[in-house]
Design a protein that fits this description.
The protein has 464 residues and is of the alpha/beta class. The chain contains 23 helices and eleven strands. Strands 8-9-10-7-11 form a five-stranded parallel β-sheet, with helices on both faces. A four-stranded mixed β-sheet has the order 1-2-3-4. Strand 5 and strand 6 form a beta hairpin. It is globular. About 9% of the residues have low confidence.
């Protein structure tokens, strides 16, 4: 039976895009097959997948079964929870709805979802987690696949390996989504776990208030009781010596008790000024994992998956336009996508028609057009605390040479300039020097996390 389903999925994969297949069929399984009745029961991990599978992919699945000599009359999708309980999706569409504990009924997937969220244990209301952040909705690509893989391992055995989990990268790349998704998944597996998500600034404010109110002991005990602590934006610890010391003590208590610690930052621990070297060393004990800015293909995949998840139609050309023109971060990419879809609905035009008519992304395109070679050179020089004259001179000092090569790289990648045109902008005569400089930054930034972060921070400054 299950060999047949592998063949069915292979047929489905032929009829869908790679990203759509990964998004909607990665975790489905055949729970039962009644050949005589012509009924297949397919298990899915959560209620959010049901609507899309029923409305967009039921026909493709029926055809795939038929191709494998199984003539179905219907497909039932079931939601499989961790305790093995299954809820048939067709019951959700029944006029009478599903009867829940206490006699209450729900009549739609949306009502069922709201009920499930409301039914979570009361202890979870203070987790600080946003339920919309899930591992299923986190799009994995070459820019984040290692971090995402480690996240799933942590969910299986929190506190056992990869502890602490230190995640770093520029703003708007999905760090908060991933770490909150870990927290939500851990709670889904075990609702009794004590999980807390908190930003560093919130931690600092809470600590100061506790000190002022002479409630320091209660503050410490609150964190010592946790099973999972998620701290966001850890770079904000700079200049907060007392809270840094308190966090160090809490960190040690939790770590020694094998409690999971998850931390995000926009830079590596050793790049956080004034951070205690002892704490910096401990933060990297479980490994430091980065989320990079996604490449063009990954940006397209993110938008396609978002459109699929929201059940919205958008042309490939429109997706490629957004992916090509927005090179700041995922947050802005998704924001422009949402703006495009809303405008499309209001004006009754397709997304591509809007783009061709010039209605969409004017501010983004204008901002990119306003970026000149001079802008790039000035931003790079400023980042390295150099003047433009110093950076474009003939000095071979290591820091100046690196800055010059970074400028070459960004002029090529961001503005699409040829090596011949880049050469005079950075003060070199030979275009082969430019070519070698670009290649060096491309190669070194893959293995040198500090250089990679520098390039990303300069890119942010260019478009900021």
């Amino acid at each position: 039976m299950f060999d047949v389903f592998r063949n069915v999925l292979a047929e489905v994969q032929k009829e869908t895009s790679e990203m759509a297949f990964k998004t909607w069929f990665k975790n489905v399984e055949l729970s039962a097959l009644d050949r005589e009745a012509g009924v297949a029961t397919i298990g899915v991990p959560n209620v959010f997948l049901v609507k899309t599978l029923e409305t967009k992919y039921r026909g493709i699945l029926m055809d795939a079964f038929r191709h494998n000599k199984i003539d179905l009359k219907q497909i039932d999708f079931v939601i499989k929870s961790n305790d093995g309980i299954k809820t048939k999706s067709r019951e959700v569409r029944d006029e009478d709805g599903i009867r829940l504990g206490g006699g209450e009924r729900v009549k739609s997937v949306r009502d069922l979802t709201e009920h499930l969220v409301a039914a979570r244990p009361a202890a979870q209301t203070s987790t600080g987690l946003n339920s919309k952040y899930t591992l299923d909705s986190f799009i994995v690509g070459s820019s984040n696949e290692l971090a995402a893989g480690v996240a799933r391992l942590i969910v299986k055995n929190p506190g056992v390996g990869y502890n602490p989990f230190f995640l770093y990268g520029g703003p708007g790349l999905g760090k908060t989504h991933l770490v909150q998704a870990i927290g939500n998944a851990i709670l889904e597996n075990d609702p009794t776990k004590r999980v807390l998500y908190i930003t560093t600034n919130h931690f600092y404010s809470e600590f100061i208030n506790a000190v002022r109110a002479n409630r320091g002991e209660q503050f410490i005990k609150k964190y010592q009781r946790l099973d999972v602590l998620i701290i966001d934006d850890f770079q904000m610890i700079i200049g907060k010596d007392r809270s840094q010391e308190e966090f160090f003590n809490i960190f040690n208590d939790l770590h020694q008790a094998n409690k999971q610690i998850i931390i995000t930052s926009d830079r590596l621990p050793e790049q956080i000024k004034t951070l205690d070297p002892r704490l910096s060393s401990r933060l990297r004990a479980g490994g430091a994992y980065d989320i990079q800015f996604p490449g063009f293909e990954d940006r397209c995949a993110i938008l396609k998956a978002k459109a699929e998840f929201m059940g919205q139609e958008i042309e490939d050309a429109a997706i490629e336009y957004l992916a090509e023109n927005i090179k700041t971060n995922i947050r802005e990419l998704e924001g422009e996508f949402q703006k495009l879809m809303v405008t499309s609905e209001i004006k009754g035009m397709t997304p591509l028609e809007l783009i061709n008519e010039g209605y969409m992304s004017g501010a983004v395109v204008q901002r990119r057009r306003s970026v000149t070679p001079r802008t790039v050179v000035e931003k790079v020089a400023k980042y390295y605390d150099l003047t433009v004259v110093e950076m474009t001179g003939r000095s071979r000092v290591a820091i100046i040479k690196t800055a010059r090569q970074v400028a070459m790289y960004l002029l090529s990648k961001e503005l699409g300039m040829s090596t011949n045109k880049i050469a005079p902008e950075v003060g070199v005569k030979d275009h082969t020097t430019v070519m070698n400089g670009i290649r060096k930054i491309e190669k070194d930034s893959r293995s040198d996390a500090q250089l990679h972060d520098q390039v990303e921070q300069i890119r942010e400054a260019i478009y900021g």
